[in-house]
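Write out the 3D structure for:
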Amino acid sequence: MLLNAKIADHHLTRHACIYIRQSTMAQVRFNQESTERQYNLADQAKSLGWSPEQIRILDGDLAQSGQQTTKRDDFKTLVTDVAMGQVGAIFSLESSRLARSNKDWHRLLELCAITKTLVFDGDGCYDRSC
């Protein structure tokens, strides 16, 4: 499978982060299927070789708007951990949902390229270091 070909040993020695978010409390309440699908991304990480102990669920930003980073502690944690080289892969339903601000999105992608962190979403696997 093409997704497996991009995963190297160094990815599997680091964390797989599942970033979960919905922008409003109403979305959390009424779009439970989306939230459940996001939690199920941990199963995808397991099937690709990460152990359950290596999978981090970052769901503290549920009901937080992506317009500003200041109230999104889990997004800050994700960026910091990627920058420190602790993350082998980030999983989300749509990679564009990781950050609503172009500045935050591009900064995260640059860090992924530098640290060779993969980004998985519903469309595939992205290796920004290539």
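DSSP finds seven helices and five strands in the chain.
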